[in-house]
Automatic annotation (TrEMBL):
Cell location: Apical cell membrane; Cytoplasm, Cytoskeleton, Microtubule organizing center, Centrosome, Centriolar satellite; Dynein axonemal particle
PANTHER family: ZINC FINGER MYND DOMAIN CONTAINING PROTEIN 10, ZINC FINGER MYND DOMAIN-CONTAINING PROTEIN 10
Protein name stated in the entry: Zinc finger MYND domain-containing protein 10
Span of domain MYND-type: 394-430
GO cellular component: apical plasma membrane; centriolar satellite; dynein axonemal particle
Organism in which the protein naturally occurs: Carassius auratus (Goldfish)
Family of this protein: Belongs to the ZMYND10 family.
Gene name per UniProt: LOC113107544
UniProt GO MF annotations: zinc ion binding
GO BP terms: inner dynein arm assembly; motile cilium assembly; outer dynein arm assembly
Entries under InterPro entries matching the protein: UCP037948_Znf-MYND, ZMYND10, Znf_MYND
Function: Plays a role in axonemal structure organization and motility. Involved in axonemal pre-assembly of inner and outer dynein arms (IDA and ODA, respectively) for proper axoneme building for cilia motility. May act by indirectly regulating transcription of dynein proteins.
Keywords, alphabetical: Cell membrane, Cytoplasm, Cytoskeleton, Membrane, Metal-binding, Zinc, Zinc-finger
Length: 448
């Protein structure tokens, strides 16, 4: 299998990661760090999927860089909520600005994807230190948003990379829709990270346990996800492996990966002794938890036999009142990253947006060409195909693609007719990426 990074390269990338200011987002220094994280993410996925030594995880643990990764993710989240809406009002959108803005929005998704791979391991949760509290708060924000949107019917039933777009859709509308789709993907990844944290709860501090059970009442949040199941569209479609897929009749009762993660997190939070001693089984919480009994069918338990213990526990809970947790006075740590970022920039949102509109998201042709060249080197197309389980789709109609665009090698088509039809829309990106690929080759030929 192709590799993205050698061990020495990866070590240099991880070591160079640094905490940045909100104003720095979109700068050349920020984009350079984004490229590093993108490559580290691809290599981590390759290693995990091939059952190879996960040296990316080992480097983040040994070099103590997981808190830096969490900080970068929350920084982007704050930017997206506080600065991005102002930029949308100030910016005259064009393909150049839309491209760069999307790269920033995509940054958060890249980091949560990398954290999903890293945090699967117990030593990663321990190495995260105090930042695990911030990561827990982040997961809570994403899951409550996911549950809320599911209840209100606001889940977008489209894949993030769409193949058929309305011709009258503006760049801003495209960008906002892509942002909403990314938000759904990020929330699903946050569920995976939360599940990993609950797996390792015994090795984490009392503050983490208290915040999960008492401050955020995560068991009740998870009950909402079981009830509303945002990754299912009735019995017709399920969101799996990053796409909405049609469900065959024989698979309609089969649990998805996300269903399993919710149930495993509930199993950890309700049955582990430390959690049972800490959680308040008051009348409200008890009523919410007992809703789970209707979902713990024999078909579900056959797929996750450990859930039989949860069903027995809920049966006992229905007829008993567990003792209330002791109200001990405990000095607990609190998350700091979100609050520090907001406090530092609370009076600067508009100034930051104006600075970035002028100096970041309005690049010259040469600056954009340089950025595209670096991104072209970041995304190794052959390696990317190893990360995607599906066959490539036609950029015009969405059917299985047979051939790539011969110039940029980045878009697929099922036939010549679709390629010609899609050319007016593909032309700007094709030209940019082709020049980014050809320029280093020309320079190499001249130097030779």
């Amino acid at each position: 299998m192709d590799s993205v990074l050698l061990h020495g390269e990866a070590e240099g990338y991880v070591q160079s990661l640094e905490k940045m200011a909100l104003r720095d987002i979109g700068s050349q220094r920020w984009f350079r760090q984004h490229e590093y994280i993108e490559k580290l993410n691809m290599q981590a996925i390759l290693n995990a999927s091939a059952n190879q030594e996960e040296f990316i995880k080992d480097l983040f643990v040994s070099l103590g860089k997981i808190p830096t990764l969490v900080h970068a993710m929350i920084l982007t989240e704050v930017w997206k909520h506080k600065v991005f809406p102002i930029i949308c009002k100030l910016q005259d959108f064009n393909p150049k600005s839309t491209f760069l803005l999307y790269m920033v929005i995509h940054h958060e998704a890249t980091i949560i994807n990398l954290l999903e791979t890293i945090m699967y391991h117990k030593e990663s949760s321990e190495a995260a230190g105090d930042s695990v509290l911030d990561l827990l708060d982040y997961c809570h924000r994403k899951l409550t948003l996911l549950a809320g949107r599911s209840v209100s019917g606001q889940i977008l039933m489209e894949d993030r990379v769409t193949h058929t777009q309305q011709s009258d859709t503006t760049s801003l509308q495209d960008l906002q829709r892509q942002s909403d789709m990314l938000e759904f993907e990020i929330s699903v990844k946050a569920l995976s990270v939360l599940c990993s944290i609950t797996d390792h709860i015994e090795s984490l501090s009392v503050s983490v346990l208290s915040r999960m059970l008492c401050t955020h009442n995560m068991p009740c949040v998870l009950v909402q996800l079981v009830e509303n199941c945002p990754w299912n569209r009735g019995t017709l479609e399920k969101y799996t492996e990053g796409k909405w897929r049609t469900v065959l009749p024989e698979d309609q009762l089969k649990l998805s990966k996300h269903d399993g993660q919710v149930w495993m997190a509930l199993l950890n939070l309700l049955l582990k002794p430390d959690c049972q001693r800490k959680y308040d089984f008051n009348s409200f919480n008890k009523t919410q938890l007992l809703k789970l009994r209707g979902f713990l069918t024999d078909v579900v338990i056959d797929q996750l036999p450990n859930l039989l213990d949860l069903r027995h526990f809920l049966s006992q809970l229905a007829v008993t009142d567990p003792a209330a947790p002791k109200k001990d006075l405990i000095l607990e740590q609190v998350p700091e990253i979100w609050n520090d970022i907001v406090t530092e920039n609370s009076s600067k949102w508009k100034a930051i947006a104006k600075h970035q509109v002028t100096h970041v998201f309005n690049p010259s042709e040469s600056e954009l060409r340089e950025q595209a060249s670096r991104l072209a080197q970041t995304y190794n197309l052959d390696v990317m195909e190893n990360l995607i389980p599906d066959k490539p789709k036609c950029g015009a109609c969405g059917r299985v693609g047979a051939k790539r665009c011969s110039r940029c090698q980045g878009e697929w088509y099922c036939n010549r007719e679709c390629q010609v039809k899609h050319w007016p829309k593909h032309k700007p990106a094709c030209k940019l990426m082709a020049e980014a690929i050809e320029k280093p080759q020309e320079e190499l030929n001249i130097s030779s």
